[in-house]
Amino acid sequence: MNKQPRPRRTDSELVRASGHLYYEIEMLFLSTVELARNEPIRLTVGNALIESFTLHARALLDFLYESESPKRDDMIASDFFDDPSQWFATRPPMTPLLDTVRKRVGKETAHLTYHRQQLSPEQKEWRFMAIAQDIKGVIEVFVSQVPPGRIVGEIESILRPNPFGGDL
């Protein structure tokens, strides 16, 4: 099978697309802050927050650490570089925690699986803050390496300390 090259995106396409990246980052951080509050919440709201957190985490991981054969319309971090190898050379390796997240989201959130039935309550716990901090670290490297004029400025501002009053 012939693998077609990825389409080159214009700077204006990348800026527009980065607005969606901002949304993913914002939702990951906001759901992390809410989950870290340690205040009683209704079961349905708590489950919705966990699902939001895990799905936004997975979307960001798929963006930052794309598969070997991403679909042509998948937005991936290397699209933002003239030479994709620049991102691959500077991107931090995926931490063991993030590797686990990618696998867990598929089995525990995104798909119905028999695997879920075998998990103890302790195994169902998510390390929200540690996961968000690991992802934030990779996003910071991405933002520092992207050529100017390719991402919305709000992404840089959301990476500042305590953007939502939490400890991210």
Short description:
The protein has 168 residues and is mainly alpha-helical. It has helices spanning 11-36, 43-64, 84-90, 96-110, 128-145, 154-158.
Key words describing this protein structure:
about 170 residues, mainly alpha, 6 helices, about 0% strand, globular
Order of helices and strands: HHHHHH
Number of domains: 1
Radius of gyration: 17 Å
Q: Give the overall shape, derived from the CA principal axes.
A: globular
Terminus-to-terminus distance: 44 Å
Sheet-strand content, in percent, reads under 5%
Q: What structural class do you assign from the helix and strand content?
A: mainly alpha
Question: What does this entry look like structurally?
Answer:
The protein is mostly helical and 168 residues long. The protein has one domain (11-158). It has 6 helices and no strands. The protein has helices at 11-36, 43-64, 84-90, 96-110, 128-145, 154-158. Helix 1 runs antiparallel to helix 2 (43-64), helix 1 (11-36) packs antiparallel against helix 5 and helix 2 runs parallel beside helix 5. The longest helix has 26 residues, at 11-36. The protein is globular, with a radius of gyration of 17 Å.
Helices and strands, with pairings:
Blueprint: H1 11-36, H2 43-64, H3 84-90, H4 96-110, H5 128-145, H6 154-158
